[in-house]
TrEMBL record:
Its EC number is 2.5.1.7. Belongs to the EPSP synthase family. MurA subfamily. SUPFAM superfamilies: EPT/RTPC-like. Residues 25-427 form the Enolpyruvate transferase domain. This is UDP-N-acetylglucosamine 1-carboxyvinyltransferase. Pathway: Cell wall biogenesis; peptidoglycan biosynthesis. It catalyses: phosphoenolpyruvate + UDP-N-acetyl-alpha-D-glucosamine = UDP-N-acetyl-3-O-(1-carboxyvinyl)-alpha-D-glucosamine + phosphate. It comes from Thalassolituus maritimus. It comes from the Bacteria.
Length: 439
């Protein structure tokens, strides 16, 4: 077992299908926020742009998405050693092929970030279609725009996308703020011949982490203001690097909300406060004052003002505001507010599927329409059997199971383990009893 998850003979983590959770549990103890999924998995893509050694520390080694990304890279020829105890990843290149990844059976989102590594070595890349959580439209046209703007040809074949040619510098003008598009443009521009300009780049903390790693690998990247990037491409591979993965701001918020809602007592370490100002302001506004130093939050029932959680309205959109991946945790908070709250999601208006599952615990508490969830707080919940609709929705129902009385069952809980590294190990450490059913 690795921290509550089983390990196969190839030292890979096997994820549980169902969780059985007794209700009325509150976490007590210390929990450390892991390296961010939305940073680690793209730093791994940057690591594939060199034949020299790369070491990634604080890497969320037990995440579902990390496991699949590591498998993809091994399948095309990279040698990767994973140390689950120290959370380090050692990666070195070799003969990198552009094989079709025919054993692809898991819909991770960022397959497009594997293109740059294959093009720069072989002039052709074959990647599985991008997947990701079912939270509404998740197009990939902006990735095609990147590859074509840098001079490559793109074919959408029945089982995979084929990109061919050589990357030459070019101008990319994104019509909307796109995290993945900006990351893809950075990776491709770094190995292209010539200068690449990105207009309307979306520079989130995780994108800044990627820029920082690429710079350490020798890429010349100039950022002007909030959204203009210029890259002097290296016309080939980059150098090796040793880089830590930044802590996960969504995980940090999740632990804070869980401790507040269950009346737990949790010391949360490695909280990236600098990237969470506005999300935390909304908590304060709702009546939650957290005890903190510069990197840890200490949550006890005293963090809640005597008036309890106040009803609120929050709009989820782009950083530095509350991002859509945090949306379900404000909905959960609103469950405990005395009155009606509204949570809007402008980024993924269709990220409302999980609300029907949450309603199994709190019947009659929600009404939702595209882009807006209305929550009637203060209702008494009950145990339920709920499905996992998406990563954050799965975590929300796991939390609801702890908050309500009785035994609940959460199906397809591996979805939550896409974004919460070693979740079961961490819950066990803070005294939360969860039975994991495999197979
Ligand atoms: C792995 C990762 O980092 N995922 C995050 C990333 O997703 P991801 O990188 O997929 O999200 P984007 O920022 O690219 O998407 C923003 C919007 O653009 C649209 N779009 C995107 C690409 C494209 O080719 N065409 C297109 O139309 C999307 O459908 C969405 O409506 O940012 C999202 C917020 O922005 C987060 O919720 C995801 O957790
Ligand atoms: C939607 C998410 O991730 P992805 O883009 O990887 O599906 C998420 O992290 O909530």
């Amino acid at each position: 077992m690795i921290g509550g998850s089983k390990v196969s003979s190839h030292s890979e983590v096997i994820f549980p299908k169902t969780l059985k959770i007794p209700g009325g549990q509150a976490p007590k103890g210390v929990v450390r926020v892991s390296g961010a999924k939305n940073s680690g998995t793209r730093l791994l893509a940057a690591a594939s742009l060199t034949d020299e050694n790369v070491v990634l520390t604080n890497f969320p080694t037990k995440l579902v998405d990390a496991q699949h990304k590591i498998r993809f890279l091994r399948e095309v020829g990279f040698s990767i050693d994973v140390d689950y105890e120290t959370e380090e990843l050692h990666l070195s290149g070799g003969v990198i092929t552009s094989e079709v990844l025919d054993s692809y059976d898991y819909p991770i989102r960022t397959t497009y970030l594997l293109v740059a590594a294959q093009i720069v070595r072989n002039g052709v890349a074959k990647i599985p279609y991008p997947g990701g959580c079912k939270i509404g439209s998740r197009g990939y046209d902006l990735h095609i725009l990147v590859w074509e703007a840098l001079g490559c040809e793109v074919k959408e074949l029945p089982d995979y996308i084929e990109v061919s040619g050589e990357f030459m510098g070019g101008t990319i003008d994104f019509p909307i703020s796109t995290v993945g598009g900006t990351e893809n443009a950075l990776l491709c521009g770094a190995v292209a011949a010539g200068t690449t300009v990105i207009h309307n780049a979306y520079i989130t903390p995780e994108v800044s982490d990627l820029i920082s790693m690429l710079r350490h690998m020798g890429a010349e990247i100039k950022v002007t203001g909030n959204s203009y990037i210029e890259i002097q491409g290296k016309s080939g591979l980059l150098s090796g690097v040793h880089m830590p993965v930044m802590p996960d701001r969504i995980e940090a918020l999740t632990w804070i909300v869980l401790a507040i809602l269950t009346g737990g007592e949790l010391l949360i370490e490695d909280v990236p406060f600098e990237h969470m100002e506005i999300p935390l302001l909304h908590l304060k506004d709702a009546g939650i004052d957290i005890f903190r130093n510069s990197t840890s939050a200490y949550i006890t029932p005293d963090c809640l003002r005597s008036t309890g959680i106040q009803p609120f309205e929050v709009a989820c959109g782009t950083h530095p505001g509350v991002i859509s991946d945090m949306q379900p945790f404000y909905v959960l908070l609103a469950m405990n507010a005395m009155g009606i709250s509204r949570v809007y999601d402008y980024r993924y208006p269709k990220r409302i599927g999980y609300v029907d599952e949450l309603a199994k615990f709190y019947p009659g508490a929600f009404s939702s329409e595209e882009g807006c969830i209305t929550i009637k707080g203060g209702m008494r919940g009950k145990a339920a059997t709920a499905e996992s609709t998406d990563l954050r929705g799965s975590m929300a129902v796991i939390m609801a199971a702890m908050m309500t009385e009785g035994d609940s069952t959460i199906n397809d809980a591996h979805m939550a383990l896409r974004g919460y590294n070693d979740l079961l190990g961490k819950l066990e450490k803070v005294g939360i009893n969860v039975e994991a059913v495999y197979g």
